[in-house]
Amino acid sequence: MKTDISLKTKSTKLIRVLLPLVLAGVLTSGCAQFMAIRQSVPCDPTCLKPGVNRVHVLAELGPPANTIDQTNSLVDEFKYTDGGSKNNVVWKTTRVTLYTAGDIFTFWMDQFIWMPMELNGFSGTDHSVVVRYDKAADGFWYAKTIDNKALASRVTKRDELNGNVWLRQSGPFGGK
């Protein structure tokens, strides 16, 4: 009889320890996978050249973040994120497969490695594009000048906000 009581006590203690671990693992499973899937895709706008119609620019980049209407000229400001070649379909699929296999074999403990790696190593580059249009005789707007600037990566912006200026990269936010 005494062994039955001690066995029940040991199993209850084991359940009390393992249950929160299992729940935490189930609730956090797949976070790196979702982060990988949601990363920006590679973006190389082919419409960014002088002389292109505004309709083509809007079709490729979407609505502008800001528009300034002037006499016989128009200025649109766009923002987009280029995921780069590391975020194409093949690389994303490979990472999701690797993360899932790691989850299975390490009981989700590998998420502590994959999630920061996904956040810091695979985030895209933000771009700011300013397009100046002139109105033609046919009534359409055609791009006159295009200024496409790559902004600092998300990691650099976060580090600057936190005061880690030694991690700065060259660019519009300062640095070298």
Question: Secondary structure elements and their pairing?
Answer:
Layout: H1 2-28, H2 31-38, H3 54-61, E1 66-70, E2 73-82, H4 89-106, H5 111-121, E3 125-135, E4 141-153, H6 154-161
Antiparallel strand pairs: 1-2, 2-3, 3-4
Describe this protein's structure.
The chain is α+β, with helices and mostly antiparallel strands and 176 residues long. It has one domain (30-167). It is 45% helix and 22% strand. It contains six helices and four strands. It has helices at 2-28, 31-38, 54-61, 89-106, 111-121, 154-161, and strands spanning 66-70, 73-82, 125-135, 141-153. It has a four-stranded antiparallel β-sheet with strand order 1-2-3-4. A hairpin with a 2-residue loop joins strand 1 and strand 2. Helix 2 (31-38) runs parallel beside helix 5 (111-121). Mean pLDDT is 79; it is low at 164-176.
In short:
The chain has one domain. By secondary structure, it is of the alpha+beta class.
Q: Strand count, sense and closure of the main sheet? A: 4 strands, antiparallel
List segments where confidence is low: pLDDT < 50 over at least 5 consecutive residues: 164-176
The N- and C-terminal alpha carbons lie at a distance of: 75 Å
Strand content: 15-25%
**What is the total domain count?**
1
| Cα-atom radius of gyration | 25 Å
- Order of helix and strand elements from N to C terminus: HHHEEHHEEH
Q: Count the strands? A: 4
Which structural category do the helix and sheet elements fall into? alpha+beta
Physical arrangement of strands within the biggest beta sheet: 1-2-3-4
Please report the number of helical segments: 6
Which bin fits the share of residues in helices? 40-55%
Average pLDDT, all residues? 79
Oligomer: single chain
Shape: rod-shaped
